[in-house]
Amino acid sequence: MSGNTIGTLFAVTNFGESHGPAIGCVIDGCPPGMPLSEADIQADLDRRRPGTSRHVTQRNEPDAVEILSGVYEGKTTGTPIALLIRNTDQRSKDYSNIAESFRPGHADYTYWHKYGIRDPRGGGRSSARLTAPTVAAGAVAKKWLAQQYGAQFRACMTQLGELPIPFESWEHVRSNPFFAPVADVQQYEDYMDALRKAGDSCGARIRVQATGVPVGLGEPLYDKLDADIAHALMGLNAVKGVEIGAGFASVAHRGTMHGDSMTPQGFRTNNAGGVLGGISTGQDLEVSIAIKPTSSIISPRESIDIHGKSTEVITKGRHDPCVGIRAAPIAEALLALVVMDHALRHRAQCGDVVPPVPPIQASFL
Question: Going from the N-terminus, what domains does the chain have, and what CATH number goes with each?
Fold first, then answer.
């Protein structure tokens, strides 16, 4: 599969390049009979698409999705669903100056060494443009999980560069360009304006959450739910770290604090992030990801060319000074794809299992 497919029973194969004619994916394993239209998918693509504010790349792509197969008379048939998103605003000439050199921090060097050839136009296959099909597939998974379990997925930015973003309310996330859970984002606007003027970039931290996830999803040892979540989210461009629940803060915890006490009314805390022994507890899945600064910047940097000689690289084109700004819907989609796959796997193996006792309440006290 060459690393282009995620999932076992709900398998999504991603295809295309940043400046090719189109990008897309094929979803294999979606259960039949679910109502599905392009409108169900488009809403999430609109949240991710470029050109939505002055703080992201100004590439103007409508990201209009087309359903090519797997849906008949408005319902999924159980056969592969092919989703296509046409590229309409490529400017490949912007990359002519780096065709024979390597951008520091980018995948140019590793792709060229691995394959002996690379597509320099916008990063080709390594571009964050390829997250659009992931979001489209995630929208399909989200709809099935919502109908089956009432599961919901949401994400927000909790840090922009050096600036922490305090959590106020989820209701603010959709009303600002940063997916920030705060009412006032002026300081983040100012920060990004100064960053763009300086020709630099920054990283971000994203929190992603799933509610309504049933107890029991996940497999022993190597296919643990949290392991697959980490695997999927590390597949997102520029992600350099994944935390489940308390994550690295667990290092400073004592056992008397960290273990999530249980009562008949529910868990008292959720340091585990909704997963114990690799299997979902029924609590909210809580994940946090660290995203590095964008590699494509206009500030000159030292590098080498394909002949091994020293050179200076200035990356032209239209780039996100912080790729984390548009990462929230992508993180949601990846989490949904993992939960969807494990839901189908659990149904296949343990659909007849009757729990010996009713599960305790999903929410913690």
Answer: 92-350 (3.60.150.10)
